[in-house]
């Protein structure tokens, strides 16, 4: 994730390098360069803006200090891949040992003014100077979220989430990170993890407004987290436990098609095919065209011996998903049970071509081939 983070971030910040010009200094005097291991020739980044006419090559005295500082911040913040990056960081810290605090403050000011790209640049510069600066890391995440909303760029939310996770690595007692990470996970529909992080957040200092948001979030997430817990139990084979959790939600959320779907799956796994069919048919009224539900209905119909109706559902699912190997294989099973071995083998062959590594398909293909020998 870190490489992906840096790649996306660098692409976002690359444009800031167009606002910097590099001045070659062939003779380096003392002053701010003392006690710093300098390259033989220094390419000094300078923020140009409307100061270009005041810059004269090899004459550092005529370059306004703020232009040098801002140029260094831009280069360091933009993750520029330059050979002298270590020197630039040392130089900035030599100018002001506490400059990361000033850069952080400038970043917060940019964020307050809704200049989120500039804020990201400055927060990242502070982090590149102080890798464990938790305030800069957290605010970087908030800026990514704000920019994501402003420019409708959902990929930036992943960068925000990464920042919150990084904060927790830096300091596991940083409540703000759990607070924000909870919302990131909620938006990803990872309700169990969202609930977990919000509950942790309440153990640490938060603003009163944050606490109110967490309480409201926990109210919204409670049943969704229970749903997630229930279907995970079913998929892990703890079917009765999962059904107990999911069925407790049914009365309040009978409009949740995915809830009804997994209750159906649980019943089908317990070979309660009639009960399962009832749930799957409800799903079809709420989410018409859901291919996996059609497939599940077909499986139940095969199990109770209604092969013609199973064929109808599988063929409709196949119409919507023509290359679905599972559905093609299930059609083969229908024809096998109807005694049409040749058509069954045609479907098994077709499914095998699409999914040659599928063990179930291979098993049916081997079985029909032995039968037809």
Give your account of this protein's structure.
The chain is mainly alpha-helical. It contains 18 helices and two strands. Strands 1-2 form a two-stranded antiparallel ribbon. The longest helix is centred in the middle third of the chain and has 28 residues, at 208-235. It is elongated, with a radius of gyration of 30 Å.
What descriptive keywords fit this protein?
373 residues; mainly alpha; Serine Threonine Protein Phosphatase 5, Tetratricopeptide repeat; 3 domains; two-stranded antiparallel ribbon; elongated
Low-confidence stretches: none
Strand neighbour order, sheet with most strands:
1-2
Question: Structural class, judged by helices and strands?
Answer: mainly alpha
Q: First CA to last CA: what distance?
A: 53 Å
Tell me the β content. Answer: under 5%
Global shape: elongated
**Mean pLDDT level:** 90
Q: What is the ordering of alpha helices and beta strands?
A: HEEHHHHHHHHHHHHHHHHH
Count of DSSP H/I helices: 18
CATH architectural category of the largest domain: Alpha Horseshoe
Percent in helix: 55-70%
Rg calculated over all Cα atoms: 30 Å
Report the CATH C-level class of the largest domain. Answer: Mainly Alpha
Name of the CATH homologous superfamily of the largest domain: Tetratricopeptide repeat domain
The largest pleated sheet is described as: 2 strands, antiparallel
CATH topology of the largest domain: Serine Threonine Protein Phosphatase 5, Tetratricopeptide repeat
Question: Total domains, how many?
Answer: 3
Count of beta strands:
2
